[in-house]
Amino acid sequence: MKKILALSLLVTALELTARAALAQTAAPAPAAGSTPAEEAAVRQVLTKYQQAVQKLDTTGTHRLFTANSQVFESGGVEGTYSHYAAHHLAPELKEFSAFTFSDYKAAVQVDGPYAFATETYNYTINLKKAPQDKEAKAPIVRRGVATSVLRKNAAGQWQILSTHSSARTPRPKKQG
Predict the structure, then answer these.
(1) Where are the domains of the chain?
(2) At a CB cut-off of 8 Å and minimum separation 6, what does 84 contact?
(3) 35-168 — its CATH code?
């Protein structure tokens, strides 16, 4: 009886040791590349895009996106960034006299060769005054949010793989 009890305890101990070893090997590794420098590099890509929009000029912005990127905006599928820039963004920017961001915040998480970003911001668009208009149109003010997935390319540069943005008219602030 003592031999059976001892053998049972030995088997239990071996099983627990094996499970612990298996759990250690199955545990996910810490996110590779999740350093302040990598997060800063991702933020730099987002900032370059934001600066281009504020300059009303998409020149060179295609380098910030992968060739097979996908752009989603306010419920619409816009296609690749190249298509979006040529058929939507660039023509739209030509109608603006100014585009400014404010209250910008970004949360970035790097996980290996991918990064995930959530941006919140306000923006104001001033439209160009048309010759037939007696006065400029009122500025367009919106509260926006964007989520993006970036991928590090073979050259070690971060590029936007997918981005989705939406906006709404800001809610009035509650008084009292």
Answers:
(1) 35-168
(2) 71, 73, 78
(3) 3.10.450.50
